[in-house]
Amino acid sequence: MTRTLLLAAVSIIAWTAPAQAGPAEDATAAVTTWLDKFNAGDAEAFYAAHVDGALIVDEFAPFVWGGPQSAQHWLADYMKDAGARGISGGRVDYEKTPIQANSDGNSAYVVLPTTYRFSQEGTRMAGKGSMTFVLIRSGRDWKIASWTYSGATPAAE
């Protein structure tokens, strides 16, 4: 009887204990945290999320950024492009479930469905797409080694 009660208790604990997130889920959570901080205007957190020399590919000229302070150069060019095109309030909304998330524990590949939203000269615009991230483990943290945005041409919402 004691053995049956012990097995029942262990089964209940195992059934109700929260599952540990794996490295792919941890990497995905890191990416969504960074996107939230970017959307909130936290440039320092955005910069800190990247390895120095991260490779970035996006839809505006010069289309690719790499080398020292690539995240800082990308953000400066984004702001310049947005100003020239009358864009304000840019943000990246994302789906909670990735299209793909893989990790070997030291590196990760995460693809998130996204919608880029902004106002352009007073008109609300949106473009559906995706962002692909390659991350590497740096101590206990994940860092962005590369990301790319791919999406449709934004249209009025």
UniProtKB/TrEMBL annotation:
Residues 1-21 form the signal peptide. The keyword Signal applies. Keywords: Signal. The keyword rRNA-binding does not apply. InterPro entries: NTF2-like_dom_sf (IPR032710), SnoaL-like (IPR037401). Residues 29-150 form the SnoaL-like domain. This is Nuclear transport factor 2 family protein.
